Automatic annotation (TrEMBL):
GO molecular function: alcohol dehydrogenase (NAD+) activity; metal ion binding
Keywords, comma-separated and alphabetical: Metal-binding, Oxidoreductase, Zinc
Gene Ontology cellular-component annotations: cytoplasm
Protein name: Alcohol dehydrogenase-like N-terminal domain-containing protein
Cofactor: Zn(2+)
Domain Alcohol dehydrogenase-like N-terminal: 34-150
Domain of life: Eukaryota
Record-stated family: Belongs to the zinc-containing alcohol dehydrogenase family.
Organism field: Cladosporium halotolerans
Pfam families: ADH_N
Length: 226
């Protein structure tokens, strides 16, 4: 049964890129294209990278942020509509899914084939190249969504889609295995608050032993994380 969708919905845009300024506007409901889905977002994290995009201060992004860009790249919501064509079998209508900083990759360049999605030369960044997750509905590529486990609440899942992915990816690429020791610089946070997530993922999920390095006032927090 098709889900009834409104014609207009709310989005938060950068109305004056280069300055700290946002505006809530009404947008027309987008139509998912081939290989895409429409997601009804319920949660979005807010990341320091969003601030950088708003302020045109992210050095790796080539051009100033366009006016009325919808920001955000840590979104969780429900799949409410499929575009035409085949969709991956792991996604069904009503599933809870996540949208990340890397919104889309080509899947065929050297970096993609080597498993380095973050270096795809054609990658699209959510909330910069595509309308992001600071809105009620977003179109996203079906094959690049992240299914959210049933028991993980959406508010906890949202930051995992950026800070969590980054910390996990670094641990995976380090080559360290269960039972190995890892040294975590900035274990209590670091510049983008990833350290404590890396401690938790390393010790609780990957079975590693953690040596945390940070300033002394963060000692208790780091020990509680690991
Ligand atoms: Zn982020
Ligand atoms: Zn690629």
């Amino acid at each position: 049964m098709a889900i009834q969708l409104p014609k207009l919905y709310k989005a938060c845009v950068y109305d004056q890129p280069g300055q700290i300024s946002t505006k809530v506007v009404d947008l027309e409901m987008p139509e998912p294209g081939t290989g895409e889905v429409l997601v009804n977002l319920t949660h979005s994290g807010v990341c320091h990278s969003d601030l950088s995009v708003m302020m045109n201060s992210w050095p790796a992004l080539p051009r100033p942020t366009q006016q009325n860009q919808v920001g955000g790249h840590e979104g969780v919501g429900l799949v409410v509509k499929f575009g035409p064509g085949e969709v991956p079998s792991f996604i069904k209508l009503g599933d809870r899914v996540g949208i990340k900083w890397v919104n889309w990759i080509c899947g065929s360049c050297f970096a993609c084939l080597d498993g380095h999605d973050g270096f795809c030369s054609s990658q699209k960044i959510s909330g910069y190249y595509t309308p992001g997750t600071f809105q009620q509905y977003v179109v996203a590529p079906a094959n690049y969504l992240t299914p959210i486990p049933k028991d993980l609440p959406s508010d906890l899942a949202a930051p995992m889609l950026c800070a969590g992915v980054t910390a996990y990816s670094a641990l995976k690429k380090s080559g360290a295995r269960s039972g190995d020791w890892v040294v975590m610089m900035g274990a209590g946070g670091g510049s983008r608050h990833l350290g404590h997530l890396a401690c938790q993922i390393a010790s609780r999920s990957m079975g590693m032993h953690v040596i945390g390095i940070d300033s002394h006032e963060k000692k208790d927090f780091v020990l509680a994380s690991a």
